[in-house]
Amino acid sequence: MAGDVETVTSVFGRKGAVAAVAGDYRADQIIDSAGKVMMTVAERARLARVITVTEFGAVGDGIADDTAAFAAAAAHVASHRRILRVPAGTYLLKQRISFANAPVSLVGDGLGLSVLKWAADASSLGIAITANADTQFHHIRDLSFQVDAKGGTAITLDYSGEVDWGVIVPQKVHVFDRSSPRFLVENCFFRGAQTIWTSGWDVGIDAIAALKGTVLNCSFTGWQTGVTPTANSPFAFHFHGVNDTYENGHPVEFLVKGCSVYNATTAVCFRGVEGAYVENCNLVSVWNGVVFDAPQAPLPVLNVANSHINALAACILADDCDQATIIGNSLYAFVNASQAVAGVMLSGASARGCSWFKIIGNDFIDSSIGGNRFNGVVVGKGDYGLIDGNTFRICVTAIWLTAGASNCKVGNMNVYAPTPAVRNQVYNQGTGNIVRL
What we know:
Layout: E1 5-9, E2 15-19, E3 29-31, E4 37-40, H1 41-48, E5 50-52, E6 61-65, H2 67-80, E7 83-86, E8 89-93, E9 97-100, E10 104-108, E11 114-118, E12 127-130, E13 138-147, E14 153-158, E15 163-165, E16 173-175, E17 183-192, E18 203-208, E19 211-216, E20 219-221, E21 224-225, E22 231-232, E23 235-240, E24 252-257, E25 260-271, E26 275-279, E27 282-293, E28 301-305, E29 308-319, E30 325-327, E31 330-333, E32 341-347, E33 354-355, E34 358-360, E35 363-366, E36 374-379, E37 382-383, E38 386-388, E39 391-401, E40 405-406, E41 409-410, E42 415-416, E43 422-428, E44 434-435
Parallel strand pairs: 5-7, 6-8, 7-10, 8-11, 9-12, 10-13, 11-13, 12-14, 13-17, 14-18, 17-19, 17-20, 18-23, 19-24, 20-25, 23-25, 24-26, 25-27, 26-28, 27-29, 28-30, 29-31, 29-32, 30-34, 31-35, 32-36, 33-37, 34-38, 35-39, 36-39, 37-40, 38-41, 39-42, 39-43, 41-44
Antiparallel strand pairs: 1-2, 2-3, 3-4, 15-16, 21-22
């Protein structure tokens, strides 16, 4: 009948009513007993799909062991295809939380608000997600991941269960389908719960045999040994095929954007990957900023743009890359570097190494104490590359074309600081190279 209402209980536990006729309220609104609009029916339906870990007994006070509650919540959302929300709080965990073969949406209330903290005596660490079907998309956001010791991987995304071992396409080891995205991790912070000398993750995100994954606005602070680091967390973000080979899954198309990394042996590593993109990132106190190694991939693409990288060994290290574009970056030798550092190092195990590359519009600076350690661009093995429009401010050698470099062009738009800031502008040992100063 017109004017009737249906009494309901919202997901917040408040009594309300659904307006059945037009008037002060639309028919798709939920009102409380005082006539105040609580939410729309559509909003209530959406929220009804959200499960919170507190519903399964998680406390979030940083003291109580919330492991069992998290495990139960994870199992429930995996089987019922629900969103798992982690309300503000610090949740103490003592083993890995696993999501098996299901789409996952794990969301917090924000950095520093929703904290997952693994205890020093935890038997296993981090979040582990496995997938065996291309419809399983994974979304993790607005969470802080802490660990009370050194070690472990915060987020493991394992798609090896999707790998087709030559059944669909003989002799091809693919993940199918190859057009659907697999994961998005955004607004997450990975760090130790104590100092960088006593705690920190070994790896922030480890993606295995994935496709079309994005890491957006995430931060990683790893552990280190010594004030001048002699060892660090191995990787902040690691993308690779099964056993690090391209033929085990053909992983392709990864984007790391707006991320910050401090204290890592390698900040961002792509191994056996066909396409990789790093944009607008800040990678500091790392041995290697971006590492790309794809000896088996056909036409493997690397794009590093508009990033700040401060390294102790190499800012960008690419092996066996095709179509590399390195543009608009600020590349530094780290202040505590005690060995030779390269801004961009191109090489490889294949006959050609890195081919058809463009290194344009970058800034190269040796900021190490004492200096005399930084080489801007080093082409160890590569051909048909363009190096132009860069600024070399403090370098031993700005551009070094070794005997393995051929048919490369150094343009006349590079800017070199005068000696002694730059000792050698271009050192050409290769064949067929064109150098214009």
